[in-house]
Amino acid sequence: MAELTDQVRGVVSRALELCCDPEAEQELQAVERRLDEPLRVAIAGKVKAGKSTLLNALVGEQLAPTDAGECTKIVTWYQQGHTYRVTLHLVDGTSRPARFTRQAGAIDVDLDGANAEQVERIVVEWPTKRLAEVTLIDTPGVASINSSVSERALAFLTPDDDRPVEADAVLYLMRHMHADDLSFLESFHDDELAHPSPVNAIGLLSRADEVAVGRPDAMRVAERIATRYRTDERLRRLCQTVLPVGGLLAETAATLTQEEFEALEALAGHDRQQAEELMLSVDRFVADVPTCSVPPLVRRHLLDRFGLFGVRTALPMIRQGRATTAGDLATALESRSGIVSLRQELLERFARRRDVLRTRSALLAIDRVAARIPEASAIELHADIERIRAGAHAFAEIRLLNDYRRGLVAFPGVEEGEIERLLGGDGTSPAARLGLGTDSGADQLRTGLLAEIDKWRRRGAHPLVTREVADAASVLVRTCEGALAELV
């Protein structure tokens, strides 16, 4: 991966030498800086899909506002910084520091007289380890009532002839799978083969804790729905996987206070039948009940923070002694929310392929800048780009994964999921590629990889095999050889 990054950096340097357009030169310098930056992951979806709530859960702090209104109207970047700082980047190309306050945890930015149309983006720098390897980008809703807000989101998330997408990957939140969700995912992709690619997108069944009206089995029901979506051919070709996530529960687990735990503890101490009657509906839960020791205002706060599913999940844990402290309860709720699985997916599917995604984005950007370079020099530059794309095995894996998911390459008799697993669909470690546990020994991994190499060599050499399968088998052999070298 380091060699791939160095090759792309060399192409950027050559492009800078050939460039005579100041604007194009600035773009190339930005591409060069991008190679050393954390992975950029955009969080997208319709209005009130839970984007800001999910961002807070991933950061572990309440930074993005999440009230009942449409909170995110400007694309907002959250990145690691040495100090607490907010910067406004205006559409005229200038930038300036912004004053901000924190209300109920969320950051409230003072635009200092500017309106939303004048601000291209807000950059929030925050000292936290959670942003060390990934920059999170909160985007406006793609189906906002305010058309200008939607246009702002789409302008950032979809490419055009002059500008590539600035995000390396996207988490797309959907309450249900609608045609406009599929349309957005198709428009987000801008790979070199000009067709949708699942390599840089994860679909999320958001607000999963509200499925089944917040019943105790809501997350299990949501997991069944997500499993069905994962096998849907339309989504398989657009995103790597679909996961259920209860963003509100995850955010609350990350920011749970001792006072909230004590209020839940008081509710759990009530007669069980009375507590269950309270949780029959939202109206009952916040009603003025004289026999309840927890005031209605406190119960309303708990409902805002946990949702009915969260309260229904927390009370039995406290009552049965499985959560005796606020820390115990936070850990338990986090595991139920689906955020742990999402973080693991981000690590396995995005973070470990960070260099591939960044260099892929950089090559796309250089491609566009090359259009403003003298033709004779641009031909040489395009040749360098194609040489990297053709020679980098990581790109070959991505192309094969795309072709396999689109049905362009078929492997009769091969176990379902085996190809995607070998290509890093479940993670890029040798154990993940073989479908083995993380505790597998080196000898077991070596034996498994040698068996795969032998199998795919024989498959590719079969006299009746098609050219497409032979080429794909060659990619799989090289993948396994690379994993074997990684063991050494």
List its traits:
single chain; Rossmann fold; alpha/beta; 3 domains; 11 strands; two-stranded antiparallel sheet; globular; 52% helix; 21 helices
Q: Output the CATH class name of the largest domain.
A: Alpha Beta
Return residue spans where pLDDT drops below 50 for at least 5 consecutive residues.
Answer: 190-196
Report the CATH topology name of the largest domain: Rossmann fold
Question: What shape does the CA trace take?
Answer: globular
Helix content: 40-55%
Radius of gyration: 25 Å
Number of domains: 3
Strands of the widest sheet, in order across it, are 4-3-7-2-8-1-9-10-11
Mean pLDDT: 83
Q: What structural class should be given to the helix and strand makeup?
A: alpha/beta
Q: How widely separated are the two ends?
A: 17 Å
